[in-house]
Design brief:
- The structure is a single chain.
- The protein has helices spanning 14-26, 41-49, 66-74, 76-80, 102-115, 162-182, and strands at 4-8, 29-32, 52-60, 63-64, 88-95, 119-120, 147-150.
- With 183 residues, the chain is α/β, with parallel strands linked by helices.
- Strand 5 (88-95), helix 5 and strand 6 form a beta-alpha-beta unit.
- The mean pLDDT is 96.
Length: 183
Amino acid sequence: MAKTVVIFHSGYGHTERLANIVAEGAEAELIAIDQDGNINEEAWQKLDEADAIIFGSPTYMGGPSWQFKKFADASSKAWFTRKWQDKVFGGFTNSASLNGDKQVTLIALQTLASQHGGLWVSLGLPPANSKAAQRTDVNNLGGSVGLLVQTPADASVDEMLSGDLETAKLYGQRVASIAAKLA
């Protein structure tokens, strides 16, 4: 079994809920980036030892949160020594708007993984894009690069949609399954 780590920043709790569900699907360990954009040395070591790393960040103003970006910039120490070379990577994001430029955040996460020499795992699920589709369906936003989730700005963490949460669990399973095949 591959060792998977989910590292995330969450501003209001929605991304944290997603991280928990992705981690459940992947049977992964969670690392939270704090509100100052930091993680401790033990967390860096866990990332270095992981077979797979799944990034999570809310989308704010068309990109990852500054806290996640600070973590990404700090990962240059691992980049310099190629500690994350050939690891399996995935990523997820949440925003209040249906679009919210979430794709830009996923591409930033994918680029970070690629800079580390990693192998990116796509969502791998067909979109729910028929007239009969509902927001409670799996992949109801039609993502492909990674996990896209939408939560209205005035919705609590408990009001997140079941389709998004099921998609999160399936994505965690997919990343861990691919990492296990390559381990």
